[in-house]
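Dear U.,

Please find below the material for section 3 of the report. The protein was modelled together with NAP; I have listed the sequence and SMILES used, followed by the predicted complex structure.
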Amino acid sequence: MKKIKEKYGPWALITGASSGIGEEFAKQLGKLGLNLILVARRKDQLDHIGKTIENQYSVRVKTIAVDLTQERFLDEIRKTTDSLTIGLLINNAGLWEMGDYLGITLEDELSMIELNIKTPAILTHHFAAKMMENKKGGIINVASMLGYLGVPYSTIYAATKAFELVKSEGLWYELKKEGVDVLSLNPGLTKTEMISKYDFSHMPMSPLRPEKVVVAGLKALGKKSQVIPGTMNKILGILSKHVMSRDMNTKMFGLLIGKTNSKLKKTISHL
Ligand SMILES: NC(=O)c1ccc[n+]([C@@H]2O[C@H](COP(=O)([O-])OP(=O)(O)OC[C@H]3O[C@@H](n4cnc5c(N)ncnc54)[C@H](OP(=O)(O)O)[C@@H]3O)[C@@H](O)[C@H]2O)c1
């Protein structure tokens, strides 16, 4: 962890830094001495987080308020980043819409594909090129435990995270030779705004704190291609992989996420 600044400095760019896991990445990387570029839509939130970090640690923070699904979002980011050396890219911004397959509108489905797949593809392509030139850098793609299998009622979300997971594995091998470390960070349930609209009280484990997720990610970067934060999640991951078939896993998630989905539908029908 101590070498993070040396290996991945001087600047880190974090998408989805206005809350949850992204905000926590900003705090921990600031503490480790990296300068930060924080990206998300909510400007006030980003500026507040940035100022707090600058006051606490001797680092510089720049914020970019932009919708990462907008056509020319990279141009907006480049206005700030072209003159800087970005050694660490955290592709964290994401969207999770849960529901019956046709209960999720096509527009929402495409927004998930856009933000969870297309946006990190554009950013990775752009920043990896510069990192490879410098023979130094790191990329963390925040995927999900749901990316390991088909997940009913979150089918498209899980598929977007599977894309990120598989992409990270390939790049981990390819870019290592160029001095760039790639990691797929695959959290289970984490206590953030993202899950606050859903009821997961019946789940066998309680959500992790974002702090733990980020520590696991920073520790694993440069050592392996992927990591599942949290002991219980790791055990579940091992059981899923070695004891149960893929169909059994999908059935289990069908029951668990199905329950959350039923509660969600009841809430919506009462509104
Ligand atoms: N929470 C979990 O249980 C969990 C589990 C596994 C994986 N993950 C993954 O972890 C990542 C972070 O999520 P989180 O849990 O920390 O949720 P969160 O608190 O809701 O954070 C999502 C972030 O993405 C940003 N964002 C959303 N749409 C955007 C857009 N169109 N343009 C720019 N930024 C946008 C949000 O900022 P603005 O609203 O300000 O734009 C926010 O900063 C996601 O990729 C998620 O899929 C979460």
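For the text of the report, you could mention the following: The chain has one domain: 4-270.

Regards,
Y.
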